[in-house]
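Q: Here's a chain of 307 amino acids. Please give me its 3D structure as tokens.
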Amino acid sequence: MKDYLNDINGRFPIRNSREQKKAFRAYAISEAQVAGYTARTVPENGGHDNVVIGEPEKAQIIFTAHYDTPRRALFPNLMLPTNPFLKVAYLFSVIVPMLAIAILAGVAVRKLTGLEGMAGRFVYFGVYVAVYLGLFLLMFLGPANKHNINDNTSGTAAVLTLAQKLSGDPSAAFILFDNEEKGKKGSKAFAASHPDIKTGTLVVNLDCVGNGDTFIAGASSSAMSDPRFPTLKASLEHAGGKVFPASKAGMNSDHRSFDRSVGIAACLYKKGVGYYTPRIHTGRDTVASPENIEKLTDALKVFVKAE
């Protein structure tokens, strides 16, 4: 079985620019065709180029992942799917220093200019807003990250590995979404142009599945009512996974563009913290396990074949 995790990481470590994405899409399409599926690039409204493998309009289950890679952020994007309170606390620990820096910059510039009254307040407010927005944008629009093996080379590798293992099985289709890192734009555009799939097809999304010894799955209420869900749940639990309602395992990825969806990520565990995924959106996103890809795709193959 091909080691897609290391192959993609070695050949296409950054999938950010138009040229980088185009080169990767050609590779993904070729690999999907070798696996026995039709595959093509589908441009969506807004300039988002998704890779569609198989026939999603006819498939019973669609497996998805985003193939674009993130910008490098000032702070790690620490994923805490089962601990919303700590997640909020972490966000505050990021935002409060940014606010403090912006306030201090505004005060410093006003003092340096010596302006008082309305003019001083105008300078202070202008500098404060400019500095805060600049820091905020750097969180999302920094330089292209050079290391992305978990986010989301791991999910992309898992999709291609599963396609290889299913060898053209028409009950499954696969989509590699563009521009998840810009606000799930590729999956939102696909869902808008395929309303039947958005509301009626079971979508299983794989994001950051390479670094962690427990697969955490968050399922929407519609997915949990799907007759195939018990089999999916059993397959994941057999692989050591834990399945929660989406309200108790919050993950912000492409599955949220669909009503009947399950999001899966790999997590580490620490007492007092719970399940978490570290390092993503940083230069330290260098850890992912091919064994994770094998274990997860074996479980998902069992699920598909059972149906």
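Q: Can you summarize the key feature?
A: The first helix runs from residue 4 to 11.
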